[in-house]
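Hi C.,

You asked whether I'd gotten around to modeling the 397-residue construct. I have! Everything is below, sequence then structure, no commentary in between.
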Amino acid sequence: MNPDLEKLQPYPFQKLARLLGEVGTNTAYPPISLHIGEPKHATPAFIRDALSAGLDGLAHYPTTIGSPALRNAIAGWLARRYGIPVPDAQSQVLPVNGSREALFAFAQAVVDRGRPDPVVVCPNPFYQIYEGAAYLAGATPHFLNADPADNYALNFAQLPPAIWQRAQLVYVCSPGNPTGRVMTQTEWKLLFEMSDRYGFIIAADECYSEIYFGENKPLGALQAARQLGRHDYQNLVVFSSLSKRSNVPGMRSGFVAGDAKILERFALYRTYHGCAMNPAIQAATIAAWNDEAHVAENRRLYAQKFDQAIQLLAPILPVTQPDAGFYLWARTPIADPLFAQHLYRDYNVSVLPGSFLAREAHGINPGANFIRMALVAGLDETLEAVRRIVQFVARIG
């Protein structure tokens, strides 16, 4: 067996299951889950209809690069959303079976094991796929702590030049999971300059980009690159998904876009890996990327929940509306695992301890004494969970 498998840590939800399994729960309350970021809003009917209408495609093998209609739909959406020239659908866009699969596979394709001590840089807290992808690509993950005192900005100076010289891949997530923070143009400029200096590739995870509030559209990596004159998107690949945007997490549909030279090699890897998208999924995906009305309605529902949830929570927990995404990231009055465990025990609400989403780095675990709450359920259920959290916090003082 691959010895690097031994480096993988249990997934946060496995840790949570063990933590909650140590206690019973108060069955007087119906269970409410806020711990996992699985969208609960209804899948739009027109996407289901397109999926059904595309079932005849099951009689044919799909290609790894997807149909021209699919790539054109994605390229057109990128241009409309970010105000950039339409990317070349043949060379700068590649469909993938959800961003998670692609984020993991990407490291396997780009990390050069022949270079000494390869490094993959990750934000901290982070989506654990980044770390696992690094280990199984034969690299060592190094972490950039997101500091709440600096609005969770990534301080690239946390790592010395000796580490950056070994860096081959840098994962960034904007809007961030779990903080919801959107990277600024200044940060992108610095990261691009460092990529030019050290030669690493940037993997920009943007799967939460379409859940934002008001008219404050999150800045995208391709958009930032174009504004800085990087018209070829050198060493930049963006990852996006329909799961959150269109409430289709089970469809496993996303894309990567950016540097054509990198995508050419990634497509070669994926051809051998067997990652072609189901033809019926392609048909539904085209329909989804070509419609914005359902996305606007989705945002309205989240905005309504966030407004009311924050009003209830703010007097007892330090919470503020994130830049984007569907998570509330809140500091806890007691240790975060204890908070999650006792909240579940007493009120049958599950939240995710922040320390489970981070690693000890630079002397601290930056997720410690935080919890992540996913406001993914319906309004009534979400607000019922929030009321129980308010009662719990008031009781523990």
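If it helps when you're writing up: The longest strand covers residues 140-147.

Thanks,
B.
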